[in-house]
Amino acid sequence: MERRKFIKNTLLTGVGASLIGGLYSWQVEPFWLEFVKVKMPIKNLPKNLIGKTLMQISDIHVGNRFNYEYIIDSFKKAKLYNPEFVVYTGDFVSYETPEQFDQLEKVFKHAVNGTLGTAGVLGNHDYGINWLEPKVADRISTILDKKNITILRNEEVSFSGLNILGIDDYWSSNFNPVKIMNKYDSKKANVVLCHNPDVCDLNVWNNYKGWILSGHTHGGQVKPPFLNPPILPVKNKRYSSGEFDLYDGRTLYINRALGNLYQVRLNVRPEITLFELTEEV
User: Fold this and answer.
1) What does the DSSP 8-state code read for residue 262?
2) What phi-psi label fits residue 140: left (phi over 0), alpha (psi between -120 and 50 degrees) or beta?
3) What is d(CA 223, CA 228) in angstroms, rounded to the nearest whole number?
4) 113-154 pLDDT, tens per residue?
5) Residue 125: how many CB atoms within 10 A of its CB?
6) Which residues pair with 55 in a beta bridge?
7) 244: which strand partners?
8) 94-116 per-position pLDDT tens digit
9) How far apart are CA 117 and CA 280, in angstroms?
10) In a 10 Å sphere around its CB, with 0-12 CB exposed, 13-18 middle and 19+ buried, how is residue 274 labelled?
11) Gap between the terminal Cα atoms of the chain
Protein backbone atom coordinates (compact mmCIF):
# COMPACT_ATOMS: atom_id res chain seq x y z
CA MET A 1 0.00 0.00 0.00
CA GLU A 2 2.85 2.37 0.87
CA ARG A 3 4.49 1.68 -2.51
CA ARG A 4 1.22 2.33 -4.35
CA LYS A 5 0.76 5.60 -2.46
CA PHE A 6 4.33 6.65 -3.29
CA ILE A 7 3.81 5.97 -7.01
CA LYS A 8 0.51 7.86 -6.99
CA ASN A 9 2.05 10.89 -5.25
CA THR A 10 5.02 10.86 -7.63
CA LEU A 11 2.73 10.78 -10.66
CA LEU A 12 0.59 13.59 -9.31
CA THR A 13 3.69 15.69 -8.60
CA GLY A 14 4.98 15.07 -12.11
CA VAL A 15 1.67 15.98 -13.71
CA GLY A 16 1.40 19.10 -11.58
CA ALA A 17 4.92 20.22 -12.47
CA SER A 18 4.22 19.63 -16.16
CA LEU A 19 1.03 21.68 -16.01
CA ILE A 20 2.78 24.55 -14.22
CA GLY A 21 5.72 24.42 -16.65
CA GLY A 22 3.41 24.36 -19.64
CA LEU A 23 1.38 27.29 -18.31
CA TYR A 24 4.58 29.27 -17.63
CA SER A 25 6.03 28.65 -21.12
CA TRP A 26 2.70 29.57 -22.75
CA GLN A 27 1.36 32.47 -20.67
CA VAL A 28 4.31 33.97 -18.79
CA GLU A 29 7.67 33.83 -20.52
CA PRO A 30 6.47 34.80 -24.05
CA PHE A 31 5.50 38.19 -22.55
CA TRP A 32 8.31 38.59 -19.97
CA LEU A 33 10.37 41.19 -21.79
CA GLU A 34 14.04 41.71 -20.90
CA PHE A 35 16.04 44.84 -21.75
CA VAL A 36 19.61 43.64 -22.34
CA LYS A 37 22.47 46.15 -22.05
CA VAL A 38 25.61 45.69 -24.17
CA LYS A 39 28.70 47.86 -24.78
CA MET A 40 29.28 48.57 -28.48
CA PRO A 41 32.77 49.84 -29.36
CA ILE A 42 32.78 51.40 -32.84
CA LYS A 43 35.81 52.55 -34.82
CA ASN A 44 35.70 56.21 -35.96
CA LEU A 45 32.75 56.97 -33.68
CA PRO A 46 32.28 60.77 -33.43
CA LYS A 47 33.07 62.10 -29.97
CA ASN A 48 29.56 63.50 -29.56
CA LEU A 49 28.08 59.98 -29.95
CA ILE A 50 30.11 58.36 -27.17
CA GLY A 51 27.70 57.15 -24.50
CA LYS A 52 24.64 57.40 -26.74
CA THR A 53 22.16 54.51 -26.95
CA LEU A 54 21.37 52.38 -29.99
CA MET A 55 18.30 50.24 -29.39
CA GLN A 56 17.74 47.03 -31.37
CA ILE A 57 14.23 45.64 -31.78
CA SER A 58 13.82 42.45 -33.79
CA ASP A 59 11.26 39.89 -34.95
CA ILE A 60 8.09 41.65 -33.87
CA HIS A 61 5.80 39.23 -35.74
CA VAL A 62 2.60 41.26 -35.71
CA GLY A 63 -0.22 38.90 -36.68
CA ASN A 64 -2.69 36.41 -35.28
CA ARG A 65 -0.36 34.01 -33.47
CA PHE A 66 -0.26 35.91 -30.17
CA ASN A 67 -1.84 39.01 -28.67
CA TYR A 68 0.06 41.87 -30.29
CA GLU A 69 -1.17 44.32 -27.65
CA TYR A 70 1.92 43.02 -25.85
CA ILE A 71 4.04 44.61 -28.60
CA ILE A 72 2.36 47.97 -28.10
CA ASP A 73 2.98 47.71 -24.34
CA SER A 74 6.63 46.80 -25.01
CA PHE A 75 7.05 49.80 -27.31
CA LYS A 76 5.74 52.07 -24.56
CA LYS A 77 8.32 50.65 -22.14
CA ALA A 78 11.08 51.01 -24.73
CA LYS A 79 10.30 54.69 -25.31
CA LEU A 80 11.12 55.44 -21.68
CA TYR A 81 14.81 54.80 -22.49
CA ASN A 82 14.70 57.70 -24.99
CA PRO A 83 17.28 56.09 -27.34
CA GLU A 84 19.23 58.24 -29.79
CA PHE A 85 19.16 55.50 -32.43
CA VAL A 86 16.69 52.69 -33.02
CA VAL A 87 17.20 49.81 -35.47
CA TYR A 88 14.72 47.09 -36.38
CA THR A 89 16.17 43.84 -37.72
CA GLY A 90 13.28 42.30 -39.60
CA ASP A 91 10.16 40.14 -39.41
CA PHE A 92 7.76 42.96 -38.63
CA VAL A 93 4.83 40.64 -39.35
CA SER A 94 3.86 36.99 -39.48
CA TYR A 95 2.19 37.40 -42.85
CA GLU A 96 -0.88 35.31 -43.68
CA THR A 97 -3.37 37.75 -45.24
CA PRO A 98 -3.59 41.51 -45.97
CA GLU A 99 -5.09 41.86 -42.49
CA GLN A 100 -1.49 42.10 -41.26
CA PHE A 101 -1.09 45.49 -42.94
CA ASP A 102 -3.87 46.93 -40.79
CA GLN A 103 -2.42 45.27 -37.70
CA LEU A 104 1.02 46.69 -38.49
CA GLU A 105 -0.49 50.18 -38.87
CA LYS A 106 -2.18 49.83 -35.48
CA VAL A 107 0.96 48.65 -33.68
CA PHE A 108 3.29 51.18 -35.29
CA LYS A 109 1.20 54.10 -34.21
CA HIS A 110 3.29 53.46 -31.10
CA ALA A 111 6.60 52.94 -32.95
CA VAL A 112 9.85 53.50 -31.09
CA ASN A 113 11.95 56.10 -32.91
CA GLY A 114 15.43 57.33 -32.15
CA THR A 115 15.94 61.00 -31.41
CA LEU A 116 18.75 61.06 -34.00
CA GLY A 117 17.58 58.37 -36.41
CA THR A 118 15.66 55.14 -37.01
CA ALA A 119 16.38 52.44 -39.59
CA GLY A 120 15.61 48.81 -40.27
CA VAL A 121 15.80 45.84 -42.60
CA LEU A 122 13.19 43.32 -43.64
CA GLY A 123 13.02 39.65 -42.65
CA ASN A 124 11.81 36.59 -44.50
CA HIS A 125 8.27 36.83 -43.08
CA ASP A 126 8.02 40.35 -44.51
CA TYR A 127 8.16 38.80 -47.98
CA GLY A 128 4.79 37.09 -47.67
CA ILE A 129 3.85 33.44 -48.13
CA ASN A 130 6.94 31.28 -48.65
CA TRP A 131 8.94 34.54 -48.92
CA LEU A 132 7.79 34.88 -52.55
CA GLU A 133 5.68 38.05 -52.44
CA PRO A 134 7.80 41.18 -53.00
CA LYS A 135 4.65 43.31 -53.11
CA VAL A 136 4.07 42.44 -49.45
CA ALA A 137 7.58 43.68 -48.64
CA ASP A 138 6.94 46.88 -50.60
CA ARG A 139 3.71 47.54 -48.68
CA ILE A 140 5.39 46.93 -45.31
CA SER A 141 8.25 49.26 -46.27
CA THR A 142 5.77 52.00 -47.21
CA ILE A 143 3.89 51.68 -43.91
CA LEU A 144 7.12 51.89 -41.91
CA ASP A 145 8.48 54.79 -43.94
CA LYS A 146 5.42 56.81 -42.90
CA LYS A 147 6.44 56.12 -39.29
CA ASN A 148 9.89 57.65 -39.98
CA ILE A 149 11.61 54.25 -40.12
CA THR A 150 14.08 54.08 -43.00
CA ILE A 151 13.99 50.55 -44.39
CA LEU A 152 17.33 49.65 -45.97
CA ARG A 153 17.09 47.19 -48.85
CA ASN A 154 20.78 46.78 -49.71
CA GLU A 155 21.23 50.46 -48.88
CA GLU A 156 22.88 52.69 -46.29
CA VAL A 157 21.93 55.77 -44.31
CA SER A 158 23.91 58.07 -42.04
CA PHE A 159 22.51 59.68 -38.89
CA SER A 160 24.70 62.26 -37.13
CA GLY A 161 27.88 60.45 -38.16
CA LEU A 162 26.71 56.87 -37.50
CA ASN A 163 26.56 54.97 -40.80
CA ILE A 164 24.09 52.09 -41.00
CA LEU A 165 24.28 49.54 -43.82
CA GLY A 166 21.28 47.29 -44.33
CA ILE A 167 21.28 43.93 -46.13
CA ASP A 168 17.90 42.74 -47.42
CA ASP A 169 16.72 39.32 -46.31
CA TYR A 170 18.81 36.26 -47.17
CA TRP A 171 15.79 34.21 -48.28
CA SER A 172 14.20 36.98 -50.34
CA SER A 173 14.38 37.68 -54.07
CA ASN A 174 16.04 41.02 -53.28
CA PHE A 175 19.03 39.62 -51.38
CA ASN A 176 22.09 41.45 -52.73
CA PRO A 177 24.75 41.90 -50.03
CA VAL A 178 27.55 42.65 -52.50
CA LYS A 179 25.66 45.73 -53.71
CA ILE A 180 25.70 47.34 -50.30
CA MET A 181 28.95 45.95 -48.86
CA ASN A 182 30.87 47.31 -51.86
CA LYS A 183 29.93 50.73 -50.47
CA TYR A 184 31.60 49.96 -47.15
CA ASP A 185 33.94 52.78 -46.16
CA SER A 186 36.29 51.83 -43.34
CA LYS A 187 36.78 55.51 -42.46
CA LYS A 188 33.18 55.81 -41.29
CA ALA A 189 31.56 54.69 -38.03
CA ASN A 190 29.65 51.67 -39.36
CA VAL A 191 27.02 49.21 -38.15
CA VAL A 192 25.45 46.52 -40.38
CA LEU A 193 21.87 45.25 -40.09
CA CYS A 194 21.20 41.76 -41.43
CA HIS A 195 18.14 39.74 -40.41
CA ASN A 196 19.56 36.24 -40.92
CA PRO A 197 22.95 35.61 -39.26
CA ASP A 198 23.85 32.86 -41.77
CA VAL A 199 24.86 35.70 -44.11
CA CYS A 200 27.89 36.21 -41.86
CA ASP A 201 29.40 33.01 -43.30
CA LEU A 202 29.15 34.14 -46.93
CA ASN A 203 32.05 35.68 -48.83
CA VAL A 204 30.35 39.05 -49.31
CA TRP A 205 31.78 41.28 -46.58
CA ASN A 206 34.48 43.25 -48.43
CA ASN A 207 36.83 43.10 -45.43
CA TYR A 208 34.23 44.74 -43.19
CA LYS A 209 35.29 45.32 -39.58
CA GLY A 210 32.61 46.10 -37.04
CA TRP A 211 29.24 45.08 -35.62
CA ILE A 212 26.51 43.09 -37.35
CA LEU A 213 23.06 43.10 -35.75
CA SER A 214 20.75 40.19 -36.57
CA GLY A 215 17.64 38.40 -35.36
CA HIS A 216 15.75 35.55 -37.04
CA THR A 217 16.61 32.75 -34.60
CA HIS A 218 14.50 33.89 -31.60
CA GLY A 219 17.20 32.09 -29.62
CA GLY A 220 15.28 28.93 -30.51
CA GLN A 221 12.41 30.10 -28.23
CA VAL A 222 12.81 26.88 -26.22
CA LYS A 223 16.10 25.97 -24.54
CA PRO A 224 16.23 22.99 -22.17
CA PRO A 225 18.45 23.62 -19.13
CA PHE A 226 22.16 23.06 -19.85
CA LEU A 227 21.43 22.15 -23.50
CA ASN A 228 21.46 23.98 -26.81
CA PRO A 229 18.14 25.01 -28.38
CA PRO A 230 16.82 21.97 -30.29
CA ILE A 231 15.39 24.09 -33.14
CA LEU A 232 17.25 26.95 -34.85
CA PRO A 233 16.32 28.16 -38.38
CA VAL A 234 19.96 28.63 -39.44
CA LYS A 235 22.61 26.46 -41.07
CA ASN A 236 25.26 27.50 -38.56
CA LYS A 237 23.93 26.13 -35.26
CA ARG A 238 26.46 28.25 -33.38
CA TYR A 239 24.22 31.22 -34.14
CA SER A 240 21.60 31.07 -31.39
CA SER A 241 21.52 34.38 -29.52
CA GLY A 242 23.80 36.95 -27.97
CA GLU A 243 27.27 38.18 -28.90
CA PHE A 244 29.70 36.29 -31.15
CA ASP A 245 33.28 37.14 -32.05
CA LEU A 246 33.71 36.14 -35.72
CA TYR A 247 37.52 36.31 -35.35
CA ASP A 248 38.10 38.60 -38.32
CA GLY A 249 37.27 42.02 -36.91
CA ARG A 250 33.50 41.45 -37.05
CA THR A 251 31.24 41.08 -34.02
CA LEU A 252 27.79 39.54 -34.46
CA TYR A 253 24.90 40.17 -32.08
CA ILE A 254 21.72 38.07 -32.39
CA ASN A 255 18.65 39.47 -30.67
CA ARG A 256 16.28 36.88 -29.11
CA ALA A 257 13.20 38.58 -30.66
CA LEU A 258 10.51 40.75 -29.15
CA GLY A 259 7.62 38.79 -30.64
CA ASN A 260 6.90 35.09 -30.93
CA LEU A 261 6.54 32.94 -34.01
CA TYR A 262 4.40 30.69 -31.82
CA GLN A 263 3.34 31.54 -28.27
CA VAL A 264 5.82 29.40 -26.37
CA ARG A 265 9.14 30.27 -24.72
CA LEU A 266 11.29 28.45 -22.20
CA ASN A 267 14.61 29.85 -20.91
CA VAL A 268 14.62 32.30 -23.84
CA ARG A 269 12.90 35.51 -22.76
CA PRO A 270 11.91 38.09 -25.38
CA GLU A 271 14.49 40.85 -25.74
CA ILE A 272 15.09 44.47 -26.64
CA THR A 273 18.79 45.31 -26.75
CA LEU A 274 20.31 48.57 -25.53
CA PHE A 275 23.77 49.17 -26.96
CA GLU A 276 25.92 51.85 -25.36
CA LEU A 277 28.09 53.37 -28.09
CA THR A 278 31.76 53.60 -27.14
CA GLU A 279 34.92 54.49 -29.00
CA GLU A 280 36.98 51.52 -30.18
CA VAL A 281 40.54 51.74 -28.93
Assistant:
1) S
2) alpha
3) 6
4) 999 999 999 999 999 999 999 999 999 999 999 999 999 999
5) 29
6) 86, 274
7) 252
8) 999 999 999 999 999 999 999 99
9) 21
10) middle
11) 72
